[in-house]
């Protein structure tokens, strides 16, 4: 059944197999590949495909890469209970004890990505990146309510098309045998009025040849979408509207430490367990969102 908030009580299992095939010609310095993807959750199904190509320069110090991707989704439209036929608020907690036959809506995402990697010298490596994204179909989330200034509530309504542009730059500088400085910047803009910047720095330091630590910091800021307004701030005459804070103006910071161990004889003397990595991060957002993230990763070979 569906709760009064519209949250599904279904199993949250996600299945997402992928298959990729590629060929590489070391002599001519190029590679080519194709891939396909599938993803299935309760509220959406997705099929994807991509073509990717790369070509190195004659001196092998530079490499151009391009990728075309397409995702073809079918989104299940999950509405809050009070907007569903036959809703009876007099039942226990307003809950529906049967499965409502939700409708579905298509969504298509097409992405073109290009990048150029250059080994400037023995210490400096730089990379320029650009992504062009076009989306069509149902791009909102029907379980997100919007309350107008009149007090009336409804679900969010957003345009059925969206265009995104992402421009990025990455630089890795080797200060010596023990220290690397990794810097990254990305600018984002779309036709919904959002502009954002992301700046990140990470400095891995090798304590020994097999043990390293890497402090990191990422700063992000974005402007609000032109369709966003908070609780009871939308005009009933608005054509498009959302109160989802994903589209709000905010800044965020994420900082922490990454610890990695990769002994030559494997972890705990097991050769196949190549390394152990523990990462801690503290995230804050100006919308009062705060979180702490701890991740543990093992690599097998």
Describe the secondary-structure layout.
Elements: E1 18-25, E2 30-40, E3 44-56, E4 62-76, E5 104-119, E6 124-137, E7 145-147, E8 153-155, E9 161-174, E10 180-190, E11 195-202, E12 205-208, E13 211-222, E14 250-261, E15 273-285, E16 290-300
Antiparallel strand pairs: 1-2, 2-3, 3-4, 4-5, 5-6, 6-9, 7-8, 9-10, 10-11, 11-13, 12-13, 13-14, 14-15, 15-16
Multimeric organization = single chain
- As a percent range, the share of helical residues equals under 10%
The gross shape turns out to be globular
The computed structural class is mainly beta
Rounded Rg: 24 Å
How many strand elements? Answer: 16
List the defining traits of the structure above.
16 strands, mainly beta, 14-stranded antiparallel beta sheet, 301 residues, two-stranded antiparallel sheet
Explain the overall architecture.
- The model is unreliable at 1-9 (pLDDT under 50).
- Strands 1, 2, 3, 4, 5, 6, 9, 10, 11, 12, 13, 14, 15 and 16 form a 14-stranded antiparallel β-sheet that branches. A two-stranded antiparallel sheet has the order 7-8.
- The chain is built from no helices and 16 strands.
- With 301 residues, the protein is mainly beta.
- Helices cover 0% and strands 56% of the residues.
- It is globular, with a radius of gyration of 24 Å.
- The protein has strands at residues 18-25, 30-40, 44-56, 62-76, 104-119, 124-137, 145-147, 153-155, 161-174, 180-190, 195-202, 205-208, 211-222, 250-261, 273-285, 290-300.
